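Reply to dn_fold:

You asked what the input looked like. This is it:
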Amino acid sequence: MTLKNKTVWITGASSGIGKAFAKAYFKEGANLILSSRRTEALEEVKTEIDPSSDRIQILPLDLAQSNTFASKTQEALSFFGNIDVLINNGGISQRSIFEETDLDTIRKLMEVNFFGSVGLTREVLPSMIEQGSGHIIATSSVAGKFGSKFRTGYAASKHALHGFFDSLRQECYEHNIAVTLVCPGPIKTDITKNAVTGDGSSYGKMGDMHEDAMTADEMVANIWSPLMNRKEEIVIAPLKIKLALWMKRLNPSLLNKILKNQKVT
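and this is what came back:
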């Protein structure tokens, strides 16, 4: 798959995995549209990649504001004339037990992680259908495959993504549009620091599992080949988590017994 002159729109592009995607796609010749809430941080990403490039456009976007998606999509299309790859990467995590979590916090997790990706995809999809090609990528998580403590709302939002994008994929085959779910395990980013607690405030700490994990750049490098081959689901995680995924299928009760004694922050 050649990326030269292709246009890639990335949400959550101001840091972490989104930033790593931006660097990798730009290196391969793609045009970039970088989105997140933080314009200044997006400008810093552009400066790091190539401050003078006309192949990088900044488009501020709040995934909790779905009423803006139609106009933002039209603005995105105006930059380069098309969108060939949409990377639904923006999202937030959670660190709180359910009984201490406000319902508004659960709604926020669903609004950003699920409805943000679904709503933006809904606006971009018609242009991909019209051009007869496209690639829709969603950054999910291994939490979209099995749940664990302190992540009730987060896991729910990621499970919902799988149900949606697995179904959408069936509708997109006839239009030559690929749908890929990327399911990382712990990655060394600020996602845990930025996770919400029960009252919606920031967790503010690096998770133990994330401290020694691979970096976002390493993650993208490891999944690049299957991503370019438009693989439908990509799991990038340590062996013990991959084993847990198999156990979830073969012996879920055993997995639950193991997880209840694990430190999962």
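The domain at 7-238 is CATH 3.40.50.720 (Rossmann fold).
Hope that clears it up.
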